[in-house]
Amino acid sequence: MHSGSLSLDTFLARRSADRRLARLTHDIPLPEAEGVEFGPANNPTALPERLRVAYVDHALDAQADLPGAAPIDCAWTGTGSLTEALGRDGLDFAIAAQVAQYVPNLLGWFRGIHAALRPGGVLNLSLPDRRFMFDAGRSDSTIAELIEADLLGYTRPSPRQMIAHTYQARAVEPGQVWAGEDPTRAPRLCGDAALALAHLQARDALASGAYANCHCWVFTPLSFLTVVDEASRLGLFPFVLNRIAATEPGSFEFYVSMRRDGEADPQALQGLQGGAIAHLREILERQHRTAKLLATP
What we know:
Layout: E1 2-3, H1 8-17, H2 19-24, E2 33-38, E3 51-57, E4 74-75, H3 82-86, E5 91-97, H4 106-116, E6 117-128, H5 143-151, H6 159-167, H7 174-178, H8 194-208, H9 221-233, E7 240-245, E8 253-259, H10 266-295
Parallel strand pairs: 2-3, 2-5, 3-4, 5-6
Antiparallel strand pairs: 1-3, 6-8, 7-8
């Protein structure tokens, strides 16, 4: 495990001025804790010196070609046991900034993280809001797709996931969308060759068994809440949601915090999950109505 590099006072001052850092470290116990961060690349979350963190990615060399990348301590694809891969459990926290969309088996990933946390442990993540970036032309991911990936135990992106990522990507920036441009009318990011390129990449990856980074999942805050609700009712999502921070103007990501509850009874857990989801849905829908009113001339 690695230790954070900031003094506690410096961390607290930085977190009070940085909303993103505050959301990614929400409810992490201080001054001491142990946890994991997924896909840190060359920008791991800034943590105080008495927090210990292990870095996890789909392979030990996942970011080997990226200058300044954090060393990966544990390889885990999201299917199977994170506890066995780490060699321990009882962690206090997990952080995943712009990572979950790349995970081939999202339900398995959530389940593995949940098992590695102690009761009361938290998972904080950020996700791209597809409406404000290159995934704007794609449809929201569905519970059927998540269940399929879990039942088949995906350890790398499927051909369907890869083709959707390459073929449907649009050449658009968040600022253009917030300025009023229709992102679905933007040209394809890969141009006229997008379809042929998508087919070629999927075919080659399937034949070689290579891992190809792609956006396997696309969500808005409300569509994410919907699939979590559906998965919870099926007993396929183990966390209780704490909060969702909706996408802010000019940005392209939203934030979710969830906890491993100590409740062992499945019906009682579903009651906690359902209450939290209903509360967060009401908040998001109210924000959506307010934003529409503000946008009306």
